[in-house]
Amino acid sequence: MSTLALWIPLLPLLSAAALAAVSLSGRARATVPALAVLPIAAAAVLTLVVLFGHGTSAATESRIRYAATGGPELWLGARVDGLAALIAVLVGVVATAVQLYSVSYMAHEERYTSYSALISLFTAAMLVVVYSTDLLVLLVGWEVMGACSYFLIGHHWDRPEARSASIKAFLVTKLGDAPFLLGILFLAHGAGTFRVQPILQHAIAQGGHGYTAAGAILLIGGVMGKSAQIPLQTWLPDAMAGPTPISALIHAATMVAAGVYVVARLYPVFLVTPAALWILAIAAALTAVTAALSAFAQRDLKRILAYSTVSQLALMVAALAAGGRDAAVFHLMSHGGFKALLFLGAGVIIHKAGTGDVDELNTQALHRKLPVTFITMTIGLAALAGVPPFSGFFSKESIAGVAFDTATHTGPTKSLLGITPPAGIGWLVFVATLLTGFLTAAYALRTWLMLFGPLERGRFRSAVEMSQRQPQTAPQTPAPSSEPETETPTAAEVAAASEWALEALVAESIREEAATTATTATAETTGATAAAEKVAPKAKTGPEAPRAELLPLVVLAAITTVFGFVGLNRGWFPSWLGDADGNAYCASAASAGKLIQPADAYHLAPALLSTILALVALALGLGVVFAAARAKPGTDPNHVLGFLRKPAFLGFRADDLQDAVAVRPVQAAADAVAFLDTEVVDAYVRGSGHAARLLGEGLRRVQTGNVQLYLTGVLTGVVVIAAVLGFGR
After folding, report:
1. Does the structure show a pLDDT above 90 at 37?
2. Do 635 and 671 belong to one domain?
């Protein structure tokens, strides 16, 4: 299977090359959909062949030596184990869904060909990361993904917010990539090779100190950057300026998943380093809770989903910190399915309604206009909330179970600053998981109510409806209405119609204040992606969406519905995931007292208790939002956040913090260097030339051509010299 895995990344790579050739030549554009979809679909099929062909077997490798450098050798090859096989399937399925969806969704785009080429290259890079047996080759795929994200997020380069979002994503992730590269070099120096398996064996044999400990801690920088964890989480919400299908690919199966995957791939390296576990646990706990609060406070649909991705990724990182690799990968797989579903469904809604603002979407009776999208989005939001029997319930419950088991059953084998890492991390992750589950259920239900729920529609007309009745170029002059008996409402009448309108105005004032610190998400229209405007573009009429857009929704909804049941058999998923790089190494090393024992999440009593508590958190989250909606009909349920609503909407001013900690000091240092360069170094150079010129001008004044003056000067000099010599005697 490892030999077959070598060829799988080549299919999307060849697709990217062919699409690039078509884009440059400007010919054969009719072949673009086939070149975009078929190679990716074939790669997805091959990943399934590798998965079922590998089964529960031990890890296999196929490799060739690329270069002998005099130090660690470089290898090109593929390593197939359960982890790689499962994640490759996720990448292939989601990438195929995105390419198929884009055939219709991006059909109007002039740059659709280059867009498809970049998606194919993006997919190839992630598959390289997944299958690579050498960390330097993994780094190549890692960096190619960063470059692709820059171009894809900035696809609408004519929009300033898209350009700034792409630059921000590139720079913030590169800030994490610098220590990530150093971490790889430390691990390779310690093990004498860049190959994954010897590095893991060296980490187990030597324990968590020296190069292994330094490498693990440095790798966390790259993980935080790619997976958008505190303090490098700010790029992901702003990345919503890119096309919606790109958001689905980035959030579900490629870039943000890469950070979690690397920790799972190099898991023993982190397990033997308690400091690394604590860093992961603390950062993940903070990220999960704050991102969930921010998702609850957002008005733009894509930004709600973006913050939810940050929060769910934090749960995966937290599970890894608590010793639950299986639970983390299970949730990564589950989340990839329903998050791709939610983003693609959001794309249908935004195209149909002409806006992504949930305050405007709630008046459009979307459940009747978009029946397929309504059903599939409901499934996706239920999975996000953790409602049984959808996949999100099982995967999030497994994280809670792992954390609780770690806190109550894993014995202390090491300590850090007097704290026992296993139990301490377990309690931290368990509490964060329950609190995040509560908040996730709340904002998922709030999103569903704002999109489809019975929140007293018709009490005021949205900006979309008013834009259909008034010309956008002269909004003060009412346009002729097809229903003359209905009077066009004024802005004052709209604002006074209900408390809902008041909530909308308050939220608008918050958004205006946030404009200086956060990029306002923008709506995508049928002709082009619209900039954020005061008046929303006119909504589309006609059929719900083309089949190319609805088919991926139906398939992903089906996967979301059934995938969670693999968690019912507690031993099935771990057996497929495999122990070659994880628990088998850890068990043998733990028996020798060399590392923290991974959590056993399958003790019956803690599993039942954690499940009950997870269900209680779910019920509380749903209940709070239902109660808020009933208490103030027609208002946004997120008013229950109270004083947290504004800071949560602003992302707790993380952008301001980054500006204060990183951007402004760097700018000040750059200004200081520029001052020294221009006012000191350049001034010295210019001063030397200026002094020479002044000396030359002074000498030129005495050269008049008068011989008598010259003789007078000579005689004067002789007299002066004689006087000096005479005085010296």
Report:
1. yes
2. no
